[in-house]
Specification:
The chain is an alpha+beta fold. The protein has helices at residues 36-40, 63-76, 85-99, 143-146, 173-184, 228-239, 251-255, 287-300; strands at 16-19, 22-25, 44-45, 48-53, 57-61, 104-112, 126-134, 148-156, 190-194, 200-203, 207-212, 215-218, 244-246, 259-264, 268-275, 278-279, 311-313. The strands form two sheets. Strands 8, 9, 10, 11, 12, 13, 14, 15 and 16 form a nine-stranded mixed sheet that branches. Strands 1, 2, 3, 4, 5, 6, 7 and 17 form an eight-stranded antiparallel sheet that branches. A hairpin with a 2-residue loop joins strand 11 (207-212) and strand 12 (215-218). The protein is globular and about 55 Å long. 41% of the residues are buried.
């Protein structure tokens, strides 16, 4: 994975951050140490990306869909939103433009103040922060072709009735961090988590797809986050005539798949070369994965006019 974007600590950057309707200097966008979200994890967020296109300048990919999911997450967590979707769409465009970064990762975050403590979560005031920073690629370029080695984690993905899996919640990601620390200690690049019944769920921060006999499969959304990139790939595949299916996938189905890959806003389309040391297919990016990966990048960079409505120019 690429670490170039972390040469300077993330808190020590030039630029501005959108905080409750105002652009404030990056280093001043701070909260109190008794911040409720910091202590209890009750906050919701999104990961969004802007890409530099030849014809329309910097464009945010599927901006409205990401903001809609943010509001869904807030509703599930019973967090009142102090802004409209339209206001936060405009705020994300504003912060990318103000920082003059056309290849960027955007992080909208809804969090609570330090008004009180205790799990009753009463009398809390919601706030919204939006940051954007330069992030050309989450992965080294060669990894997009060679793929990553994956290990099945011993940690189980959240049960649907123990944590609301459709919400992108700050505290949920402790589960992912534990899984990643576990597999990285064994020399693997990514973790795969199973659900509480032993079926394939998702990666630490990505949805997963497999290809078998020309058909593209992905787990249904019972325990998975409804990924925007996941939906993008399903749409592109169907438009290309590739058969698709959303169903439960067993661990052994994954092992005997012809191809496998992760999808996510940060990871984009990332081939999986092996699981638990067992090669997937030929142990490298497969033909359908390569096709969908290429079409995905054509889409986000504005080279595919079929999906131009998914791109929102930062400076119209």
């Amino acid at each position: 994975m690429s670490t170039d974007q972390y040469i300077n600590p993330i808190h020590d950057q030039n630029g501005v951050i959108w905080l409750d309707g105002q652009l404030v200097p990056w280093r001043e966008a701070t909260v109190h140490g008794l911040n409720y979200t910091l202590h209890y994890g009750l906050g919701v967020f999104e990961g969004v990306r802007a890409y530099r296109t030849d014809q329309r300048g910097a464009c945010i990919f599927r901006l409205a869909d990401h903001t809609r999911r943010l509001f869904c997450s807030a509703k599930i967590m019973r967090m009142p939103m102090p802004y409209t979707m339209e206001e936060l769409n405009e705020a994300q465009r504003q912060v990318v433009s103000a920082n003059q970064i056309d290849e960027s990762y955007i992080r909208p975050l809804c969090f609570y103040t330090s008004h009180t403590m205790g799990i009753h979560a009463a009398g809390l005031q919601p706030h919204v922060l939006i940051a954007a920073w330069h992030w050309p690629s989450y992965m080294e370029p060669e990894v997009r072709e060679k793929g990553v080695a994956v290990k099945v984690s011993s940690y189980t993905r959240h049960n649907v009735n123990s944590a609301m899996s459709k919400a992108k919640v700050c505290g949920h990601y402790v589960n992912s961090i534990l899984a990643m620390k576990e597999v990285e200690a064994d020399g693997y690049a990514e973790a795969l988590l199973l659900d509480n019944e032993g079926y394939v769920s998702e990666g630490s921060g990505e949805n997963i797809f497999i290809v078998h006999n020309g058909t593209l499969y992905t787990p249904d959304l019972a325990t998975c986050l409804a990924g925007i990139t996941r939906d993008t790939i399903l749409t592109i595949a169907r438009d290309c005539g590739i058969p698709t299916s959303e169903k439960r996938i067993t661990r052994d189905e994954l092992i005997i798949a012809d191809e496998a890959f992760f999808t996510g806003t940060a990871a984009e389309v990332l081939p999986i070369c092996s699981v638990d040391g067992i090669p997937i297919g030929e142990g490298k990016r497969g033909k359908i994965t390569a096709q969908l990966q290429s079409l995905y990048f054509d889409t986000v960079y504005g080279r595919n006019n079929d999906y131009s409505t998914w791109l929102t120019p930062v400076d119209p």
